[in-house]
Write a structure and sequence with these properties.
It is a single chain. By secondary structure, this protein is mostly helical. Helix 2 packs parallel to helix 5. The longest helix is centred in the first third of the chain and has 23 residues.
């Protein structure tokens, strides 16, 4: 499905593009990792240093590179920028690249989206011992949508797995 689009691109472009997209998504996931447990919005409000509160500039928000150039510290106050942010950005890039082989089957984007959701949940669990019901529900719903969109739910195991995922989603969102 996506193979013709990728095959017309010069070698390496899908790889680099997926890594860059993944790092950008990973940067957003890093913000979510910090903001969600404290009840802050993940879509509104500018990114700022946790130490001095200074709003970050565009240059300071470049995934991976800004962390490396600044040696993991705020340019204004010198406060450490946790390694969690870098882990999110690198993890996001890794998921983007690892999903590319699925492009032949038209599943690369679906794999990226599911992988990024899993990354956020894994890091929330590792760092805060917290798995928000809503995010777990969204993951289950996303998996269901991918399964139905691909019409791969034809065997008994697929039907049972889909039914269980649907039940978990209902329990997570409504329980």
């Amino acid at each position: 499905m996506l193979e013709p689009a990728f095959s017309s691109l010069p070698a390496g472009v899908p790889l680099v593009g997926s890594a860059i997209l993944g790092a950008i998504v990973g940067s957003f996931l890093g913000a979510a990792l910090e903001r969600l447990p404290s009840g802050r919005s993940i879509v509104s409000g500018r990114s700022a240093c946790d130490g001095c509160g200074k709003a970050l500039t565009v240059v300071e928000l470049v995934p991976v590179l800004s962390w490396l150039v600044q040696a993991g510290r705020c340019r204004t106050c010198g406060s450490r920028i946790g390694g969690w942010q870098l882990a999110c950005e690198l993890g996001g890039a890794g998921i983007g690249v690892a999903s590319l082989p699925l492009a032949r089957d038209g599943l690369a984007l679906a794999a990226m989206l599911l992988g990024w959701q899993l990354l956020l949940l894994a890091l929330l669990d590792l760092r805060h011992l917290w798995l928000p019901r809503l995010l777990v529900g969204w993951l289950a719903a996303s998996g269901l949508l991918v399964a139905f969109a691909r019409a791969r739910v034809t065997d008994d195991a697929g039907v049972i797995g889909t039914a269980l995922a649907g039940a978990c989603w209902v329990m997570q969102c409504c329980g």
